[in-house]
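debug: dumping io for the single-chain case to check the tokenizer round-trip. Nothing else runs in this session.
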Amino acid sequence: MALLIWLTLLAPAAAAPSSPPVHAPAPPPEPAAVAGLYRAKGEVAGKKYQTVVAIRKVETLYLIRWMNGASGIGFRDGASLVFGFQTSGGGMGAARYRIELLGDSGKPRLVGRWTTNPGSGEVNGETLSWLAPLEEDD
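debug: decoded output
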């Protein structure tokens, strides 16, 4: 019996059936460029507003400036841009925008939600519609 066990242990292992090669998933599509000028439209406490927003990419960061004086810094998270910002009055805020590409033009539209402190605590909506690319720095 012991001899049979030893022979079994010493016998070459049977070749494992070959499996099809594993292919790496296709790389994700190149993310849409979102740096540029936008028209922002939204509503706060029942009052509609409109302003212009500039978004600039610096390496992996994004800088945002609303023409009403607010500005901030953020990053891209897949199909979203996430920002922390300071309001023109010195308060702090957070915003998240979903990146959508419009039809054949491929131009981005950013659909977002934001809130500030101090503020009402309400989460507001804002849509940024593409206007133009930013001019390059010299």
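debug: round-trip ok. The first helix runs from residue 2 to 10.
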